[in-house]
Amino acid sequence: MKALVFHGPGRRSWQEAPDPRLIDPGDAVVRVDAVTICGTDLHILGGDVPAVTEGRILGHEAVGTVVETGLAVGGVKVGDRVLISCITSCARCSYCRVGRYGQCREGGGWILGHLIDGTQAEYVRVPYADTSTYKLPDSVSDEAALLLADILPTSYEVGVLNGAVRPGDSVAVVGTGPIGLAAIATARLLSPSLVIGIDKAAPRLEAAKHFGADLVLTPGGDCEAQVMAATDGLGADVVMEAVGTPETFELCTRLVRPGGHVANIGVHGASATLHLESLWIKDVTITTGLVDTFSTPTLLRMTAAGRFDTGAFVTHRFGLHEMQDAYDVFERAADTGALKVALFRR
After folding, report:
1. Are the C-beta atoms of residues 212 and 188 closer than 8 Å to each other?
2. Distance CA 200, CA 252 (A)
3. Are 112 and 84 in contact (CB under 8 A)?
4. Which residue range or ranges hold the Enoyl reductase (ER) domain (predicted)?
5. Which pTM value belongs to this model?
């Protein structure tokens, strides 16, 4: 088969790779019908995730068709159209039994495109297939389902729920790429009184308005003063970090009000300074998190009911064999205006 293979920081290749095969009885092999690229893949290519070794097939978000199952698989069958979750769950360990699937201790968690070969390929092996895939209704298109593999559950769980957004809250989202936009969209489910989107790129700020931001700002200059002015001089109740750089994290800690919450969503590859000399007295809560995807069934039902404008997330579409072109467009988002890119088997 063909696959997108990581060859060390800054190097990737769309090349021949061995076809996946069943290894454990709970495995399924899935033909990839639609796949996307995540900001985390760019972090990997930037050298920020050293656990990803040379030769790894990247990708952790896809929709496909089951073509083979192990003897222990009973929840899906050959021919089923499924969403492949970015998180793999054994369903048995102490973490999985309380819904913390991202911390699975039995070979699950975030493994696709990280510790094992991922989804940016023509076929992929999915461990624990019964609990790591979701059968899709006909009413949900492949493209819409792609957003449920990672960005919607990640933003909702790690941003909105970890950030404890409540009705009437003021919410600031730093970084309005795909994850930040999904954070804005899912925060709206909790009826905040004010949503602020902050980003350097004008096209992404325009997208933030479309997804429900009441106010959009660029970092630097009078950004902090404008946030304070919009929040009675206190700062936002909840600030979400959706970039993954020291500068954006530290900005978040300056924008949060006393008693507020900073929810870090971004993937970080460098140290950030935690200014406890100013934070200790403010009763601020800071959370980090890897998505668990416990919300995926709920978000899937909402998507089927038309509650999310999923079409607005995808700005560029490619054939699967145009993977290198798709990466080039996604990497240059500031120039291309790319949000999510979707690639389809044609």
Report:
1. yes
2. 15
3. yes
4. 10-343
5. 0.96
The parts of the chain modelled with pLDDT lower than 50 are: none
What is the tens place of the pLDDT at every residue in 65-95? 999 999 999 999 999 999 999 999 999 999 9
- Asked if 228 contacts 172 with a C-beta cutoff of 8 angstroms, the reply is no
Reading the block at residue 141, the tokens are 């298109």
Q: Show contacts of 89-95: CB within 8 Å, 24+ apart.
A: 89/128, 89/131, 89/132, 89/293, 90/128, 90/131, 91/128, 91/130, 91/131
3-class secondary structure, 257: strand
> What span, in angstroms and rounded, lies between the C-alpha atoms of 237 and 85?
31
- What pLDDT does 232 receive? 97
Task: Quote the pLDDT of residue 63.
Answer: 98
Please count the CA atoms within 13 angstroms of the CA of 273 that sit on its side-chain side: 6
pLDDT for 311 equals 81
Instruction: Give the whole-angstrom CA distance, residue 116 versus residue 161.
Output: 29
Domains and CATH numbers, the chain: 2-150+292-344 (3.90.180.10), 153-287 (3.40.50.720)
Hey, which residues does 66 pair with through a beta bridge?
A: 30
- Euclidean distance between CA atoms 207 and 6, whole angstroms: 31
Residue 342 has what pLDDT? 98
Q: pLDDT at position 334, please?
A: 86
State the Cα–Cα distance between residues 93 and 91, nearest whole angstrom: 6
Coil, strand or helix: which one is 237?
strand
12: left (phi over 0), alpha (psi -120 to 50) or beta: beta
The answer to whether residues 345 and 32 touch, using CB atoms and an 8 Å cutoff, is: yes
Q: Taking the alpha carbons of 236, 240, 243, 244 in that order, is the dihedral positive or negative?
A: positive
pLDDT at 196: 98
CB 282 within 8 A of CB 258: yes
CA dist list (Å): 323 to 35, 116, 123, 141, 301:
10, 19, 14, 21, 30
Measure CA 60 to chain center: 10
Alpha-carbon distances of 29 from 76, 107, 121, rounded to whole Å: 11, 17, 12
